[in-house]
Amino acid sequence: MLMQTAIRKGSSRQPAGRELQITSTVPELAGSVEMMGATMTFGRNGEIYGEGEQADYVYKVVRGAVRTYKVLADGRRQIGAFYLAGDVFGLEVGEEHPHSAEAVTESTVMVVKRSALIGLAARDSDVARELWAFTGRELARVQAHVLLLVKNAQERVVDFLLEMANRQPGDAIELPMSRQDIADYLGLTIETVSRTLTGLENEAAIALPNARRILLRNRSALREMNA
Amino acid sequence: MLMQTAIRKGSSRQPAGRELQITSTVPELAGSVEMMGATMTFGRNGEIYGEGEQADYVYKVVRGAVRTYKVLADGRRQIGAFYLAGDVFGLEVGEEHPHSAEAVTESTVMVVKRSALIGLAARDSDVARELWAFTGRELARVQAHVLLLVKNAQERVVDFLLEMANRQPGDAIELPMSRQDIADYLGLTIETVSRTLTGLENEAAIALPNARRILLRNRSALREMNA
DNA sequence: CGGAATATTGATCAAGATCAAAGCGAGTGG
DNA sequence: CCACTCGCTTTGATCTTGATCAATATTCCG
Fold this sequence. Notes:
- Chain A is an alpha+beta fold.
- Chain A has six helices and twelve strands.
- The A-B interface holds A 1, 3-4, 70, 72-74, 76, 78, 80, 92-94, 98-99, 121-123, 125, 128-129, 131-133, 135-140, 142-143, 145-147, 149-151, 187, 227 and B 70, 72-74, 76, 78, 80, 92-94, 98-99, 121-123, 125, 128-129, 131-133, 135-140, 142-143, 145-147, 149-152, 187, 227.
């Protein structure tokens, strides 16, 4: 049942345009953790970290978009999440990254040492609580992903659109990712994603000015068809 | 590792035979948390907690098996996990339970107040770390569930069998749950689960002495077909 | 025993995958 | 400035997997 991207072809595989520049900033992990971090920029499809690598750093998207994914034994790719500006990713409880992470578009991320956070948490229970809460939100997100994957194609696509819409203001969605990325996130093929979007456009639920831009024309209708 | 004979509640059947009796024990949450807990016994299909309820207690299965699940808008049920003897469940980061929990068979669980754990964690960073680690393991489990749900029927069933086999010694699996439970966990129908098991038996990969007992005849063949 | 719940098996259907062919759009070089 | 190309997306035709509908078998208990 080959569906998702069978082979990660190296096509436009940018040499992971990694560009590091030290910056001093004071962002927050997820609400209350102050940290200093370096900033790095990755080109489109640049690898941020690989599955199984030591999880020594925690990341925050400053600009752009990041996807985490796993490649299954048969070569298919399953995307676990998309992270947009402001989102933290790569913070693991264990010692290594269970997924790989790549920049979807050219992206800037802030980096902080995991050990620094863990050290803080050992002394400050508020920080410890913050780390736990972060993992709890990831857990809730993945649980929602499970529910998505047992729905039919239209429901999955609508779920995805509503999720993306909730993460940016307005009724227009500017998609940083390709149809293949969407398909690999939803467990569908690009053809099914494309046909479903066309169908929604025909039902006047959305408009597709171009492939990367989607306008929600009737959000409540969308909410209903997502069951 | 968890011996404490609960005075049993009589047979008890359906109506969520909830019966509480205080016991003094010293089990551990997941490695290092000492806690005192009361013991409760639930009849088959007895409700332990409902989705959306306050998550004031944390549970540990002493005997039996527990399932957590959500009911989708269209009435379908998605099982999130099965917890067997020794497993902790119901520990949430947030204030309420995102799933419902029921006893699969008559089960005894130990209960401890969540607030007690959180209170401990505020003073003892090892406990805090333990709570975080627990949620991290749940996260890993749900991530594995996502990967399972994008596989084909045979792969899902084999995944399930290997998972269950790894949780009990030997090559015989004693299933506490029905075909419907398995189907709702795997995102399949009971017919597909049944046919797939029959198929595996015909291929001599497993044996089915009866519906609730499965023998793994060829574990490496199973591992291969699960891709 | 008898009856209800659970499981298996069979026949058919449909959603979505696969295979195949255009269409589109942005960047490149003549 | 235009034509060409490359990668991405859409559309079409067909096939396959697992769902659905239906009947039979088995198990569990009262």
